[in-house]
Specification:
Blueprint (H helix, E strand, L loop, with lengths): L2 H7 L2 E8 L7 H16 L5 E9 L4 E8 L2 H5 L5 H6 L5 E6 L18 H4 L13
Antiparallel strand pairs: 1-3, 1-4, 2-3
Length: about 130
């Protein structure tokens, strides 16, 4: 593989987060955005291998970690909806080279439908009535 081709196909990871202080939003209030818009929208983005939203309610921080299959995929613009809702861009937005990826031993293979959103009265993910 040539150096240029290797750079084009190298996986990337993006970390972005907001400080919610002074925005009128909380981690809890942003769950409606996840449930009503973001989860479905991001499940259809080409080149996105994984996205998980992260939060620290006590510190009033909210954000996401994204794993991209290539530098080209990571460079594509994303819908600015979260920044529009929150009222400002993220405090931190960094793109990293991915050095290695591994999947550990786990009990439940599916990641979709996991997380606080589904445990706090969010709707069940499509096709999963058990989480309703």
């Amino acid at each position: 593989m040539t150096a240029g081709k290797e750079a084009d196909t190298a996986m990337k990871a993006t970390v972005a987060w907001w400080d919610l202080a002074g925005t009128g939003h909380t981690v809890e209030s942003l769950r409606a955005y996840l449930r009503d818009e973001a989860v479905d929208r991001f499940s259809r983005i080409e080149g996105l291998r994984l996205k998980f939203w992260i939060a620290d309610a006590a510190a009033r921080r909210w954000g996401a970690v994204l794993l991209w299959e290539s530098a080209a995929a990571a460079a594509r613009p994303l819908p600015p909806r979260a920044a529009e809702l929150i009222g400002r861009p993220p405090v931190q937005h960094t793109v990293f080279d991915v050095e290695a990826v591994v999947e550990g031993a786990y009990a439940e293979a599916a990641l979709a439908g996991r997380g606080a959103l589904w445990q706090t009265g969010g709707l069940a993910p499509e096709g999963d009535a058990s989480r309703a």
